[in-house]
């Protein structure tokens, strides 16, 4: 992108953003470096509306890096519940500890120091450095890449190494030409989110775009075709059979997931996972019951980025026995806010606890070998 064109693009994007920026909780002035860092990590692969809803509560609980660093990981995961991609929460937790240990609890202003933090990549470091501290550094996310590739009519495959390198190089030229690097970077992201959208059917809203007269894809009538995208591989299908077991007080049995894999370390109803639909016997064995002691009660689908999870729900109709030391506990409705739960598991446990249809026969008392029930 030639310098004169870069200057024209930057000027238009900055002016547009000044008049069209959304009121979002991380845009309060003056910008708080910690809040900005948290929001940028949350915004990775999560819609802005969802982050806007959750960010204030998270920051109220962890207002500083020191507060987050001092928290137990499970407490952090519980506060993150519903945002998905829980590696980000663990990375942010490690980042907070690093800020305390290496930066006296302050968020550093330069890209290199930010990049050295756990869980912080080039985009997040550039966003915080430019938007909060005014550093003349570029950023590229999916929205920015889409805007740039359409603007220049580039045929590079979105997400490819070549397209990514090309986008970073052009973003660098733009940020050098900008009056306000932070306004330019936020403006490019906002433009991609609100106007230069990815929809192939409705297409981008070119009539509202400040760059319409400069856009090469639009001039060529290819704004719906670009950027070129690789076909998404089909989701793999897996089956999860979740068992609802209650004790005499109406509490529901919860199980902690393994420390690795999908939804690692989070809580759920005791669950069998398989490439095929689990049988009643397999479900019953979760809590040492017989097949006749469980009954199927429904199901639903849950899609993740790479998987289609078919949930089957089962009810236990007899007292269950739990091996001593098993990663299970009894929970009531008041326990839910403090548990780290993925969205489908929160749905299952919440509905189970709300249900008043369990008969006394179903709500049998449960004995934990070596421990008093409910501990």
Question: What descriptive keywords fit this protein?
Answer:
375 residues, alpha/beta, Endonuclease III, domain 1, Nucleoside Triphosphate Pyrophosphohydrolase, 2 domains, 3-stranded antiparallel β-sheet, disordered C terminus
Summarize the structure.
Helices cover 41% and strands 14% of the residues. With 375 residues, it is α/β, with parallel strands linked by helices.
Describe it:
There is one protein chain. With 375 residues, this protein is of the alpha/beta class. It has 2 domains: 3-229, Endonuclease III, domain 1; 236-368, Nucleoside Triphosphate Pyrophosphohydrolase. It contains 14 helices and 11 strands. The protein has helices at 3-20, 33-43, 48-61, 65-69, 73-80, 87-103, 111-115, 122-133, 142-152, 161-177, 181-194, 216-219, 280-284, 343-354; strands at residues 157-158, 228-229, 236-244, 252-256, 267-268, 271-274, 294-303, 307-316, 321-322, 328-331, 367-368. Strands 6-3-8-7 form a 4-stranded mixed β-sheet. The chain has a 3-stranded antiparallel β-sheet with strand order 5-4-10, with helices on one face. It has a two-stranded parallel ribbon with strand order 1-2. Helix 1 (3-20) packs across helix 11 (181-194). The longest helix has 18 residues, at 3-20. The radius of gyration is 25 Å and the shape is globular. Residues 357-375 have low confidence and may be disordered.
